[in-house]
Amino acid sequence: MVIDCLKTFSVMKNEILEGLTTVNSIFKFDFSNKASYADISKVTHFRRVHKIYVTGEDVPDPLENFSQLVGDYGVSSTILDNIKNLGYLNPTPIQMQAIPLMMHNRQILACAPTGSGKTAAFLIPLIHNLKGPEKVGIRAVILAPTRELVKQTYSFCVKLSEETGLRPLIIENVNDVKDRPKFLRKHDILISTPNRLIYLLKNDPPSIKLNKVQWLVVDECDKLFETGKEEKSFRDQLAFIYNACDSSFLKRAMFSATFRHEVEEWCKLNLDSLVCVSIGTKNTAVESVKQELLFTGWEAGKLLAIKNFLQEGFTPPCLIFVQSKERAKELYSEIAFLYSKVYVIHSDLTQEQRDKVMQNFIDGKIWILICTELMGRGMDFQDVQVVINYDFPTTAIEYIHRIGRTGRAGKTGRAITYFTTDDVENLKNIAQVIKNAGCEVPEYIMSLKTKKKKNEFQRPIKRQKISTVPVYDLQKQSKKRKLIQNSIKKKLKKKVDA
Ligand code: ADP
Ligand code: MG
Which residues belong to any copy of the Helicase C-terminal domain (predicted)? Predict the structure, then answer.
């Protein structure tokens, strides 16, 4: 094995693997009985072909095919069969490099495009490393930002761990887990949002122990590093969970489609002998998606544009992104009567309702799904044909994730982004992403000046209500509502005073 042979020359090896050193510097070392230059250049070439970039020491060779897992790592035929049953013939680039790294118990920060198979890249080595059930409690934790993504990862995990005896767990209801240590002990892998897990950890005494956790995987890690208001801060929640996993054997793996410098800095500081893996150019949209920008003039123009789009005919399924749940409801009420197969999903629905909508979308009963950022990250719907950004995304990162719901696993897709004069400030950033992916962007947009943002998280701009009712009438209705509310308040006050 190349890795074993080169251990003594670790620093230099990485340079070689990255193709950074010259032939001269290689010959300064004695390579007798060690990997030949041909082997190294083969690995370098292989990585280059698959756009795999690695930094770190002693990086194992990338995997060329799944059957290598058996010979090189002793992966059971059960796991290999589970991989085959999912229809995976060959590993994707992130799987090629992340799987061997995690097999070697290395801590990693991995960045690979949307829909490139990151889930299996961490699940396969995790399932192999845990071997079989031990009934000592949770030994691996996978965190994801939304309940929908947690469920999706859980279902992948169930499929990949079939017949291994390992038991994955998601917390549907905190009361199912509370005060049930025996139940928890029977499970090996916990997949959760930070919120649910924190709730259990903060009970007195804690309802769950994480002292046996060997692997902490943070999916969509750049999202989970976001700061927010007190208890809603993903970053604080992550820190709490991180501290609760206090085993000395703990290893962490961070995965995301988008890269934040801050996350990399944190990982470099806190994770021993970290390896950073990235596939392709960082923070780019997938090239398999045909991306278009459409100027609709003003807010009301967007409603006309979407109705036109739906009337002209398109290949479903289609996802329509808006910036808030209020706007999702508004848009739904405007187009629901036109199409029976349109529905809406947002955080005001109960979990049960959300699950039902998701299932109906997956089953093809819903063709057009209006959604918010809730669906923006990680969701892997089969064959979404079109993504429409009804509301212009606030950041390029948000844009990359939203349009990454289509064009997954090498398939093609289409993304249409509406913009109005109100969106000009952010336009250039997103247009740049579109251009970098090889799609056409009008020159006048590219010549706009980019405004430097104060911080990378921007609030969505205030927009006019989505409605066919003229603005004048809407204002009149709102004034009337306020007058009624005020008169009710006055009457109540009078009653209290009397
Ligand atoms: P990501 O997390 O990178 O956005 P996912 O893990 O959700 O991507 O995978 C996207 C899709 O690709 C899923 O439908 C998954 O089943 C499929 N997939 C993953 N790995 C492979 C593979 N090696 N071969 C074929 N399809 C794969
Ligand atoms: Mg994912």
Answer: 302-449
